[in-house]
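Sat 14:20. Reprocessing the chain from the morning session after the first attempt stalled halfway. Input below, unchanged.
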Amino acid sequence: MNSRRASDLAYVAGLVLAGMTYVQVFYRPAAADVESQSRRLRTTRAEICKSDDFTRGLDDLERYLAEFQDALAELDRLVPTSVDGDERLREIDAVVGACGLRSRSIRPDPAQPQGPVTAHPLTITVSGTYEQIVRFLFEVESLPRHTRATRITLEPELERDAPLRAQVELTSYSVASEAGGER
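Finished this time. Tokens:
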């Protein structure tokens, strides 16, 4: 019986040794690999979450850039980089005619650099009624290009065809280039 017991013990010891060998050779490396894959999966999920947040931020940035480009286009329309003096004179003369005024003189004055912008004054003398002159000022300041009446002088007209004469200085602006002059 002792031999049977010794063989049973040897058999059990062999099973335990086989089990321990299996754990050391197969189970532990597989468990370490599973843990490593699990860490990589968690890291990848975290990066995906960051990427989603970043992508949402890009949508906001894209919308902001579109609004910014629209604002720049509007600024370029209001205050362009240069002034076409002849077209500006034609534009003002058309407003004079549309308001029913009579133009006495239109005189472009020299450009006046004012830091990053250049002022382009224009002095015009018109004759007409008070209402026509006010409408003229409104129409000029409503032009697509930023133009302001910077000085106005009203006096009675000596001739009978119009009750008032107005001398108006109209100023429009252009943006100076980085080099300091106009583009």
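The mean pLDDT is 82.
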